[in-house]
Amino acid sequence: MSSFKVVPYWKIEHTCAFLGLKTAITSRPVVQGPRYNGSPFVLISDGCAEEFTGVLSQKVRMQTPQGQ
Q: In total, how many domains does the chain have?
């Protein structure tokens, strides 16, 4: 894999997609601290013979500025 070069395959569309993803995962309401007000937590796990991983997330009801 050390001989594989991304540069010939990376296009402006990839840059736009990457920047869009970067904005999405660092903008509200995605990144926020946990709420201990009764909102349920969800634990998602996955594993195989070599490794195990998990994600702790929380279901949060968001209200739009229009009240919906």
A: 1
